C-alpha cells in the first residue's frame, strides 16, 4: 500500500495547535499514557468487541449491516490509484484517507471522475486505534442511516488489511474550513453546519433504535457535502448508551484533547452529556475561529473554553470573543443566542447541559437571522470605541486578536473566574499534536 509515508510531502506543518490527537488513559484517575495503543474498553454496555486480527473471528464480532459492500484490497488499491499521494485527503489517528472511484452499485474500481467517488480510510497497523475501532466503525455506522451521518459504503478485511469506504464529502472537514482555508466561513454557513451537526448528535442520542454516545465530536470529524450539510464521521470511539436504569457507561477515558467533558476525564463516567459538552467546544470554535487548544496564543488564551467562558453569557461582552474575520457580518441576535447556547453546553454540571434535541431547536432559526452587526449603528460605535482605546494602549502592549491589548501575558479581560482548578478540563493531559495532510 502507498503508505502515508509516501505522502508526507503533503503534510502541512504550518498550522499551529493541532489538537486532533486521541488520548487513552489506562484508568480514569491515573495519569494519561499518550500515544499508547488503545486498550480494551471496560464498559457496562458496549458493542465494541475485543481486538483481534483474525479474519475468521471477525464474522462473530461483526453484526454487520447487509447493505455494506465488501471490497477486496486490490479493488481499493486500484480505486485510489495505488494509494498515491495525489489521492490523499487527510490523515488521522486511524491512518490515511484517500480519494477513490468505484462502480455506482458495485465494488470494482473505475476511471477517476466516473462512477461513485469515495473516501477510503486505511488502518495504519501501527496506529493507535486499531482493529477494535475499525470494528466499532463498521458496527455503528454500518447500521445507522441519517442525513447528518456520513454514509459508510463498505469495508475491506483481508489478511492484515483493514479499510473503510465512505461516501466522499467534497468540502472536506469543518476543521479545514475554520482553521486552514484563507476565506473565512460566512456566519450563516457556520450556523447551518452547527445545526446539521447537532441533528446528527440528536439522532444518535434520542432517535436511534439504541442510543449511541459518539465520544469524538470535533471539527475534523464533521464533514461537509457540496451544500455545507454537516455529517458526522468516525464512530471508532462510539459506545452504546447506558441501558435500563443505569445513568452512565463506565469506560476508559478516550477522546480528543480539548474536547472531552471534565467530569468524563475525571471519572470515566460517560453520558450523552459528554457529547453535549464537546458540541459546546465546537460551537465555540465556530464562533471564535479559534482552536479548542492553541499553545501559540498568549498566556491565558491557550484553552478556548477557559478564555471565552467569562464572556459568553454577557450581552455586552460576548461579541468580543467572536471571530474577527467575520468583520461584523453576523447576526447580533443569532450570535448572542449561539454564545449563550455554547455556555449552557459547557456547563460544568452535566445535568444543566441541554439535550441535543433542545440544542437543535435553539439553532434552527439562527442561519436565517438577518440583523447583521455590520449594519447596526450601536455595533459600529462600539467597534470604533474599542479600536480607539486599543490604539491608545497599544504602545505598552501587544494587540490581541479581538483588538484588545495584553501586557506581558494575560489579556486585560477578566479571566479570574475561569482560572480555578476545574477551568481546564484537560489541563493535565499532555497534548500531542500530530502532522496533518492537506485536504483536496
Ligand atoms: N468521507 C470523507 N470525504 C472527504 N474527506 C474525508 C472523508 N473522511 C475523512 N476525510 C478527510 O480525511 C481527514 C482525516 O480523517 P480521519 O477521520 O482519519 O482523521 P481526523 O478526524 O483528522 O483525526 P482523528 O483520527 O483524530 O479522528 C479528515 O480530516 C478529512 O479531511
Ligand atoms: Mg476523523
From TrEMBL:
The record, for PROSITE patterns, names: PROTEIN_KINASE_ATP (PS00107), PROTEIN_KINASE_DOM (PS50011), PROTEIN_KINASE_ST (PS00108)
Cross-referenced PANTHER family, in alphabetical order? Answer: OS01G0588500 PROTEIN-RELATED (PTHR45621)
Stretches with biased composition (Low complexity): 42-56
Family per similarity comment: Belongs to the protein kinase superfamily.
Residue positions binding ATP? 121
Q: Which residues form the Protein kinase domain?
A: 83-369
Q: Where does the protein principally reside? A: membrane
Query: Where is the sequence biased in composition, kind Basic and acidic residues?
Result: 24-34
Task: Please provide the record's keywords in A-Z order.
Answer: ATP-binding, Cell membrane, Kinase, Membrane, Nucleotide-binding, Serine/threonine-protein kinase, Transferase
- In what ranges is there compositional bias, type Polar residues? 380-394
- Its name, as the record gives it, is Protein kinase domain-containing protein
Region listing for Disordered, in residue ranges: 1-56, 380-440
Which Pfam families does its entry note? Answer: PK_Tyr_Ser-Thr
List where in the cell it is found. Cell membrane
- Tell me if Cell membrane is a UniProt keyword of this record: yes
Give the organism the record lists.
Hibiscus sabdariffa (roselle)
**Cross-referenced Gene3D superfamilies, in alphabetical order?**
Phosphorylase Kinase, domain 1, Transferase(Phosphotransferase) domain 1
